[in-house]
From TrEMBL:
It comes from the Bacteria. This is XRE family transcriptional regulator. One of its GO terms (molecular function) is DNA binding. Transmembrane segments: none annotated. SMART domains: HTH_XRE (SM00530). The lineage of its organism: Bacteria, Bacillati, Actinomycetota, Actinomycetes, Kitasatosporales. PROSITE patterns: HTH_CROC1. Residues 77-131 form the HTH cro/C1-type domain.
Amino acid sequence: MESRLSCGAVEGSVQGDALKSPIRTCAQCATELSQYNSGDLCAACAKAKSAPGVPDRAWRQEAVHQALAEWDFGEVLRLVRKRSGLSQIAVRDLTTLPQSFISALEQGRKQVGSPATLLDLLNGLGIPEDLQHLLLAPLSRNAPKPGLSPAVEAALPWTADRMVASLEVAIGGTTAMKRRRVLTALSGATLTQYVMQSAVAPVEALASSGTTTVTESLIDSLQGTTDALRRADAVGGSGALAETARYHLQMLVGLLKNGRCNQALLRRLAAVAADTASQAGWYTFDSGNHNAAQHLFLGALRAAHASGDSRLRAGALGFLAIHGYSAGDPRDAITAARAARQAITDQDAPALHAMLLTRQARGHAKLREEHHVKAALGETEELCRRGAGEDDPHWLYWINPGEIFGQTGSCYLDLGKPDQAALAFADARKVLLLDQTRTSAQFLARAAVAQMRAGDADAACLTAHEVLDLVDRVRSARLDDHLRTMLDEARLNRDYRPVQDLLDRGRSVLSERVVA
């Protein structure tokens, strides 16, 4: 099977921002299309229908390797085309890029200005998988090339030692001064470079040089603790779970450093660490500490990479997507979700794909890109009809129709369509699991906002009182934000008596939660 680069792997790592203009996607695989591509297929899909291609021998030259490492894509194109004996017309057919652009690129009069264009170029030419690591060269040098972010974390190598160091920083295992310096939010090109490295960096062997024996039963027990914390969060919110999860993660990091076992068990240990770091990041995010949460997600991404489990890598990217559309740049959410889906193309995991599509849809909704929201939600609905797949992970038990309907309602609320949002939330409440109190309270709070904006104050007040009945059992800073938004929306109708009663009760509940 031919290897292909993904949009999530390079987006933001080149100059320009393709997301500033409306996004078009491939009719066959849904990859983002370059602005220069006037057709309806990406380069990889178009190439599959055309011949001849670039022979492997065209890539086997030191000058080509050097040009790839220096991101001199005009030189890459010129050398590969010359060694293949292809005309610019043939390259146009392979890459879907205009001949005028191909000519200008080779002559140095134009540069690759967007991730989609770079993907069309390299996928169309068929860059061999064993040469893709050369694209990491500019990111690993002490003096990054112009146009690339100098952020330290994104440029550090994806080794086992760096995985441990990243997790230690995220949980506070280094000096306070160093932690303050590192724990600033990544976004845009810097964050995408991180995603790119996770996609193409090779997975190295894990070292087993410690004195503590790690057994399969011990790893099972550690995973059981992570699963128990996950279930507690679904019912009662993050509460004190963030601190507990950090202690649990610290134990796992200690075993990664000092444990002794075979390679298979080491990878399982890294997998549990990845899952735990993602959960610790989620509890931290739910507690309102967004920057610290993001670095736990980044540490989880490194641990997932070391484990070799692409589903865990997709899960960590999914959490980064939540961070993007909730507390950062929605474009980062789209990048992370797309990269995550690309990572699991070989997995039978419809539920995991559906979850990632809802995260992508939320990013598009924040940007008011209704067409892309509907496309993502439509595909989500089709995947849900399939049910769970053979490779869907056990930790994704919470993906159900109620979650999908709730995320659909949130998208329509962000799109400024409260009537459609209210209908989706109404569908969600019919099928939400009763024991997922925090999730139910959040979706109902958004439902009350949608009803208020749709002009149904009576229904909104009834829904809002249901929320206030639920929140007493849940501790979540994120839920508190939803409560404030709900009450702020109600204040626009403060002259209506039922709304006045709601506001009085809401103020009392919020004041008690602040004290607690």
